[in-house]
Specification:
Jelly Rolls; alpha+beta
Length: about 170
């Protein structure tokens, strides 16, 4: 599942303050830990947007519908896959800074991708994975990396840690 909270409009720039001289993955983990602490201390309400699972021959699509004003920290994906923003608008924190994505845009995510997104409008985000698997629990194991295994996984795929510049 994604860690999700509702937030105000300028959250991405604010949460990136004082994040200099750190790698992208360190920045994402730090922000995720702040969010989880806020949720556990009841300072932040956790919101779980609805997810719809679509299956076809050799394909699994996972659709998440997020409300405007929602901040999401995704799980890390273990495989390369496509993403389509079906409707809405989202700003993503990526290794290259903040990227705005609008309905209809298609993106290719590499293995090792973990994103932070702020949804400006009610939005539908679709990930597309090549697989015959139809068990959702098994799919989660197959296409995402547990938090405690992220560093080991990144090393196994030869991920090059680069300094994050917002």
């Amino acid at each position: 599942m994604n860690d999700v909270i509702p937030v105000e409009e300028n959250i991405l720039k604010r949460i990136l303050e004082n994040r200099e001289h750190r790698t992208y993955i360190e920045v994402v983990k730090s922000i995720q830990n702040v969010m989880l602490k806020g949720i556990s201390e009841n300072h932040i309400d956790e919101v779980k947007p609805p997810v719809i699972h679509h299956f076809g021959p050799d394909i699994y699509m996972r659709q998440m519908d997020a409300k405007a004003g929602t901040l999401v920290v995704s799980k890390m994906h273990s495989t390369e896959h496509f993403n389509i923003l079906l409707k809405g608008a989202v700003s993503l924190i990526t290794e290259d800074g903040i990227k705005d994505v609008y309905a209809g845009q298609i993106m290719l995510s590499k293995a090792g991708t973990k994103r932070i997104g702020y949804f400006h409008e009610d939005s539908s985000w679709l990930t597309i994975h090549p697989t015959n698997e139809t068990d959702v629990d098994q799919l989660e194991k197959d296409i995402t990396i547990p938090e405690e295994e992220i560093d080991e996984f990144l090393e196994s795929i030869g991920y090059s840690h680069k300094e994050f510049i917002a």
